[in-house]
Amino acid sequence: MAALLVIEDDDRIRLSLALALEDEGHAVREASTAEDGLIAQRKDPADAVLVDLMLPGVDGFECIRELRRTDDVPIIVISARSDTHDIVAALEAGADDYVVKPVAVKELSARLRAVNRRVRPAASPVPALVFGELEIRPEAGEVRLHGEPVAVTRTEFRLLCELAEHAGRVLSRQQLLERVWEYSIGDERLVDVHVGRLRQKIEENPAAPRHLVTMRGLGYKLLR
Amino acid sequence: MAALLVIEDDDRIRLSLALALEDEGHAVREASTAEDGLIAQRKDPADAVLVDLMLPGVDGFECIRELRRTDDVPIIVISARSDTHDIVAALEAGADDYVVKPVAVKELSARLRAVNRRVRPAASPVPALVFGELEIRPEAGEVRLHGEPVAVTRTEFRLLCELAEHAGRVLSRQQLLERVWEYSIGDERLVDVHVGRLRQKIEENPAAPRHLVTMRGLGYKLLR
DNA sequence: CGAAATCATGACGAATCAATGACAACCCTG
DNA sequence: CAGGGTTGTCATTGATTCGTCATGATTTCG
């Protein structure tokens, strides 16, 4: 649904949170310190940041203020502490919401949507398409693997988008030719070549693809 | 601080909440049913609405949906129930925040401020668009690099603003022609030329642009 | 098992695309 | 009306990308 940045020092909590959020369809990047989080957000802005308050070194409050200095990104605090004082301080520092651990992922997702509704009233909600470690951002014209941008050509990108739009469904070479290339006639081998090139770029092991799968005799499909 | 509407059927809670909020400097109106609340809000809109979920007759969820149908007012749910299901349902119905009773007034005030900050971006006229060392001030018609003003021409400035407004998104040459030049027809190479000139001015190394990047086959985009 | 069908992949020339410098037309402004 | 700055057009150049083909691998099925 969106690209998130989770800043949390406890590995177990961070990992389980990240996993759960990915299940909800978000693309999650992680940081275990405020410093790392700030750098990550500067280098590659997420659509929302989830931050713990108790962090080693620079703490959560400072982290929020620093984020707010340059960035208007929605910030949700996730803290074990439910003191009014902390809540008020975090919100005053610039956070948009504050939830107390343990938190249900469904609730978190709903709160993210609520904040986002306010934050981008007009911006078209083009969600990133997430396939595990693979992210596709149609509006940015960009593909990422493990959060790292991958250079794909225009045809590869269109092909990938077409497959992603119908994730899980088999598309025949004929269908792909019509939709990506806009020919009705043409060599179906052409699709193979581009699928091959795409695999070299987006699959960890192109010989045993996990996402861009061949359905022998039928065509190709993209899996999560 | 602001005009609030409290919709809550329990007299004791409503009154004590109203008193406490008035102590915080808010002007509070009260309603004990969803119907009364909706009428009150229609007749004389408050700046924010606090609503209980369990109301006699029309319940809180319905009340939120009805408010949202015509009004963009911030809505904070105040409920005794802390089920994830209720929280998600209330947020999905259009609420901006959800707090569980009993709630500290200081917290409530802070949450109101947090929501309001999002709801009236009008307070800040036009935020300077900051892309690392590059700043664009649309209202001042000026561009700065490392804080130093950079002379850009009118067309370059418009082009830059257009890209900045959709930061991170690819804009095709066609889109840029339409929005910056207001032609629908025209030579797309024109865009290239101006992008090139802009790069000479705003990029440290125009040959390896860090902000104004080319998306081959797609168009251009501006990165942070 | 072996043949046929299907798919993967590397190589290569052709086609496409973007960057840039040169230049003339067109502003303004003094 | 003269001159500096700005704008749009064009041609050239270099790089990337595309589509085709040939070859080798893999699967299917008789």
From TrEMBL, chains A, B:
Keyword field: DNA-binding, Phosphoprotein, Transcription, Transcription regulation, Two-component regulatory system
List cellular component terms (GO): cytosol; protein-DNA complex
Pfam family name, one? Trans_reg_C
**Cited SUPFAM superfamilies:** C-terminal effector domain of the bipartite response regulators (SSF46894), CheY-like (SSF52172)
Q: Please list the GO terms describing molecular function.
A: phosphorelay response regulator activity; transcription cis-regulatory region binding
Entry annotated with the keyword Magnesium: no
Annotated DNA-binding ranges?
126-224
Give residue ranges for domain OmpR/PhoB-type. Answer: 126-224
Residue intervals of the Response regulatory domain: 3-116
Residues recorded as bearing 4-aspartylphosphate in the entry: D52
List the SMART domains hit by this protein, alphabetically: REC (SM00448), Trans_reg_C (SM00862)
Concerning PROSITE patterns, the annotation shows: OMPR_PHOB, RESPONSE_REGULATORY
Entry superkingdom: Bacteria
GO terms under biological process: regulation of DNA-templated transcription
Keyword RNA-binding tagged: no
Record-linked InterPro entries? CheY-like_superfamily (IPR011006), OmpR/PhoB-type_DNA-bd (IPR001867), Sig_transdc_resp-reg_C-effctor (IPR016032), Sig_transdc_resp-reg_receiver (IPR001789), WalR-like (IPR039420), WH-like_DNA-bd_sf (IPR036388)
Protein name in the entry: DNA-binding response regulator
